[in-house]
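2 proteins. here.
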Amino acid sequence: MFYPLRACEPARAPLASFAILACDVRTGAVGLAAQSRLFAMGATAVCLWPGAGAVVVQGQVDSRPVWNALRQLGEGRSPESALAAALHGDLQADLRQVAVIDCTGRSAVHSGAACPPWSGSLVGPGFVCQGVLQGSGATLGAMATAFAQSSGDLGERLMQALEAGQCVEGARRWPRSAVLWVDHGSTGLPAIDLRVDDHLQPTDELRRLFALYRLYTAPSAPDDLLPIDGPLAYELQTLLHALGYLRAPISASYDEATGDGLARFLADEQLQRRSQSGPWIDRQVLDYLRARRLRQR
């Protein structure tokens, strides 16, 4: 399925931003993460085509020139050809940065001659980092190092790279928006499509949303399972009672009413993937329960 960029008018002046695009050639997963001073960067400056690749445009942002390039990428054209198509006839190409990557790890980059300093790209195996109006190339270097040294799924690796870029001195420049977009290819994992459009700390907020994504979509890890007995049974029953999911007396021992109440809570909160059979609870579900109780007070 093709996810088109949203048409937008060109920005009046380039705004500071940086991004990373990457793929996992083993699974066909492809994704991107970016932070920008631009409002709602995820709506206007990035695009991903599952099974084909991804693109980011920075500097003088205008999404329209890259539509055709992404369609060609989906038809099997190389990133170089897709990028050439994006820039062909673009009268403001010198003011733009564009990065393209496909699901095999091939990439192509462009930084216009009129892009403000510091602007540039850093290409590595299976990834490309790009930024405009950064203090130096240190931002991209930190992102590349973090990505290369990270482990886990592509979303987590992209998130770590984005956070590493944010931590470089002089690189933040009053960020406003951030985006994390991943298609997991053959893994069967749900796609990640998370955006922070207007926030004082957009990358931190993006991390919070990503944690919620994992809570809702990933099954429980064996190390996170806790036996419901003794003090934990008492706390769980107290929480469920306070939230209206348990009417039976608190007994400090797991019983059928406790299990039913917990199951109803998980269903209401869309956390069925974290459901357990028998007297067990996911540590993250317990933390979520505690937070829900605090918000109720």
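next one coming up
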Amino acid sequence: MTVLIKAKASNLLTGRTAAPKTGHDKPHPVRLLPGLFQVGGGLYSHSRDACSYLIANESTGECIMIDSGSHSGYDALRANFRQVGDIKQLKLVIGTHCHWDHVEAFGHLCQDTQTKFALHRLDAEAVRTGDPDLTCAGFFYNEPFHPFPVDLELEGGETYEVGDYRLEILHLPGHTPGCIGVKLEYSRTGQVILIPGDSVAGAFSKRINSSSRAWKSTMRKLMRQNFDFMLPNHLPNGAQTALLGDVANRLARSNRQLQTDFHAFMDNQWN
């Protein structure tokens, strides 16, 4: 099952929904579940941004964000955030890996807030130095990557709790050595949601230290777990946002393609 959600703005505290836009659809946040929002990526910030997901405590307003996108969509990200909460209540940004389209905007966000940044230790040096290859900023996006510090170096296995959600960090190397995913457990229903970063659908290149061997191990690791839904950091073609079901079969299909036809694995993730 794939749920493609037509986006509406939502207020974190009141639950009000804005009227549908006409003509050009401006960036806005999407409420996926109570306390879970998409605030960046594609239509919602900039076409080159990966998706940013906000997990919030609806009582206190405290929140954690998964990925921040790039400076290209930073103004839209900030505007979206203001519609669902107080950015001063953002306690942590977790980067799924070191690439420009996923985390570069934190270099601007950290100048405006006291928010801390967490990244796996194997990707941390690329962010600290702004490496143009390892961050994809130079050779792929032709953009600068202004270095910024990594406050928390992750290993995998760390857990956080925000409102109705328990977050667990999964180390999922392959796309990059320090690629991670986030496993969300939603206490109201018991459902489990995977935010995989680029661990399932990312590009592959020796230039960014990708490893097919590590990737295969990651896929086997994910297939041993049970997920009800998946929130991709890059969306299916034509989707505004997506809460993907049938996760076990999606992962199994990607794994078969990775084992037998690498180009099919790269080209047909969400079809």
